[in-house]
Amino acid sequence: HASSRIVRGFTAHPTEFDTSTCSDAHGLTREAALIQLQDRWNGFCRSLILRSAVGGIRTLSGLNLVRAYSSEAAALQALRGTFTGRDRKGANWEPKWFDPSEAIDAASRLVIPNYATVSAALGATPSPLEELRCVRNFFAHRGALAATTMRRVVGVGCTLDAHAYVVAPQLGGATRFETWALTMERQARAAVV
Question: Could you read off the pLDDT tens digit of each residue along the chain, which spans 193 residues?
């Protein structure tokens, strides 16, 4: 099933790391893993919604998605066309697929046949996506705005504290990062049912 391949694409590589003896190199690896986790989620949401819009596939529950667009590019063009006037989007614009509200809005505008399932899964709460985004942006950009946003959302504002936040053990012993990855995997699986 194409639905299975979409989830496997998101979950294909382990998103765990050993934090018992983290040197600077481990810290950089941790940052890269966090950035990659959000990038993979972005790609998963994009693929899920555009493939659902194109159709011609069957979900894991057996729902046949009727072919609506000839290609993902055609679906993107149609999506951009739903914005008019001052909201009009440029030829290369795409939503922030990692953002649940933008992804769900795109799914709605494209009238995907599995909208109820996709929107329920991507919009599920509690979700780690906002925390992940803030920490990821801090690691990726290191700017004052990213630090301020991270401090507001997760309560830490420097590199050392951000690393400690990401590896903090959660209920059951998994790190916060591992909990985020597992939660996102569950959301991905729920989206393709």
Answer: 555 555 555 555 444 444 445 455 577 888 999 999 999 999 999 999 999 999 999 998 999 999 999 999 999 999 999 999 999 999 999 999 999 999 999 999 999 999 999 999 999 999 999 999 999 999 999 999 999 999 999 999 999 999 999 999 999 999 999 999 999 999 999 999 8
Q: Which of 86, 85, 78, 84 is nearest to 111 (CA)?
A: 78
Cα 36 from Cα 39, distance rounded (Å): 5
First to last CA, the chain: 11
**157 and 147 Cβ atoms separated by less than 8 Å:** yes
Phi then psi dihedrals of residue 64, to 5 deg: -85, 120
Give CA–CA dist 181/188, Å, rounded: 10
